[in-house]
Amino acid sequence: MARLCMNLSTGKALTMACAKEGEHTSGVQLPEKTRNSRVLILGGTGRVGGSTAIALSKLCPDLRIVIGGRNREKGAAMVSKLGVNSEYAEVNIDDIKLLKSTLNDVDLVVHTAGPFQQAEKCTVLEAAIETKTAYADVCDDTNYSWRAKSYMNQAVAAGIPAITTGGIYPGVSNVMAAELVRTAKSESKGAPERLRFFYYTAGSGGAGPTILSTSFLLLGEEVVAYNKGEKIKMKPYSGMLNIDFGKGIGKRDVFLLNLPEVRSAHEFLGVPSVSARFGTAPFFWNWGMTAMTNLLPADFLRDRSKVNRLVELFDPLVRAVDGIAGERVSMRVDLECSDGRKTVGIFSHRKLSISVGIATAAFALAVLEGSTQPGVWFPEEPEGIAIEAREVLLSRAAQGTINFVMNKPPWMVETDPKEVGLGIYM
């Protein structure tokens, strides 16, 4: 049985125990001043928020967790699962007065109430700044994340640390990329030239209708990538590549999608060529996504109400197939440098529904520990997750993984260690 065993130390003397594969989390000792912090998880009755709440409660039993949502019955069920250090708060993020009132009572808000696509305002972030509440979200939409970034000056003035795109992907993948780039700059004579993000999730990953809605909405967005510093636009779910995700996952087909880490990595890590691809299983889901892109008008796929109706139609079938496909998740981040150096990071877990919560909890803990400076940051920015805190965050996020490697050449991690002719593969 694979094991992840690390004993890490930072200026705050943080340590963590070993975690066996399949366990959710192992304990973390927070600084005294934040050990009993109140953390509000918006969307806490959903798949991502609920998973985050469970991971946080296991990591830090002393934390007081507030489950924020609109369904009291589901909230009560989650509180019952979490135990005495939790409570439910009825919150509708569109009810600004109620939202601010709830935020006044907490130290950190974790916003998991997606989908973030098509949202016109950063309502929760605005309320967090006004109430001087630390903030993190699991945004996976480019427009929303950069809208959040535009609140930088307000957050600095309020003294509020905020992280956007702080989940599993984007989120952990951004930190993996930052570490690949940092290591390359310190060890290589060449400059980082090309960074590629590859993601795979079996079925819906057990994440339910939200991830399905997110996926459909992304099919309505032109893909933005960067080639030698030039911004280029391409068709969504095109440019298929067959990528080796290594042990436990193997080779999978992945397709271009418009994901926020592409622009943020290009701008903040200074890599001239960046792209992102995603694939799923069974294989016919990829065919279906390609067909939707080709047959449905982009305006239809950008219409949230129409997409929600599609989700309602497909959800029963997706859940049935999920039972067969499982919910394995894998991320592979590739970096190439001008001197020919190639390094890879791989993160694979058997259950996305568990792994996403652990990853999001790792970001929440980083904020509570003071890793994040006042302002609004992407995970790869050192002001968001301090360089010295990255190793701790990655080791926490990787608990329970079936494969987690960093800074290895491709041939050391692939199931078929050969160079693959990729042709033109922005």
TrEMBL record:
<feature type="domain" description="Saccharopine dehydrogenase NADP binding">
    <location>
        <begin position="39"/>
        <end position="155"/>
    </location>
</feature>
<protein>
    <recommendedName>
        <fullName>Saccharopine dehydrogenase NADP binding domain-containing protein</fullName>
    </recommendedName>
</protein>
<dbReference type="InterPro" id="IPR036291">
    <property type="entry name" value="NAD(P)-bd_dom_sf"/>
</dbReference>
<dbReference type="InterPro" id="IPR005097">
    <property type="entry name" value="Sacchrp_dh_NADP-bd"/>
</dbReference>
<dbReference type="Pfam" id="PF03435">
    <property type="entry name" value="Sacchrp_dh_NADP"/>
</dbReference>
